[in-house]
Design brief:
alpha+beta, 195 residues
Length: 195
Amino acid sequence: METQKDYTYAEYLDLVKSLVAENKTTGPDQSDEIIYYTGLNLVRMERIGKTFTFTDELLSSVQKIKQNYHFVVLTEAWCGDAAQAVPVFDYIERESNGKIKLTLLLRDENLELMDQYLTNGGRSIPKLIVYNELKEVVATWGPRPDLLTQHIQLLKEENKEADYTFLIEKMQLWYAKDRTLSTQKELAALIGGLR
């Protein structure tokens, strides 16, 4: 499987910062709207980076890992869901005592891999793919917490005329209230199942 450049979280953050400074984003769509979302996402990632606190459940799961795992995450700078989850993956890697290696890949440069992990037929990101020491896929997660997926479904049913912008705003409000707790809960269960 051929992949393009991979990134550590620090490299990815630097990439997003440089793109925002140049009024650009990752991927082929360089529309004003997508570039605007990239700027917002940089702010979100930096905020989570400064305010993140582990739940006891996730911290315990990470600290009990016995084997080495490789967390590969498909992402893009313009993706609001990715901006909320990718910093959490970074904290998990840092807390893992070297047991977890995090690699970030840009989705649009790695479509062959992405197309193996579609969500309802779509290339939804972020997508976490967990490999064990034998390079076998042992778990996946993404693109967002189940509670948010249910919330969006309800919003779509209640607001049949709602456009994409309306849904994005509601999603980001949900994320702001949730403060990564739902993501941490699901990742604690995923990591707890790896032992």
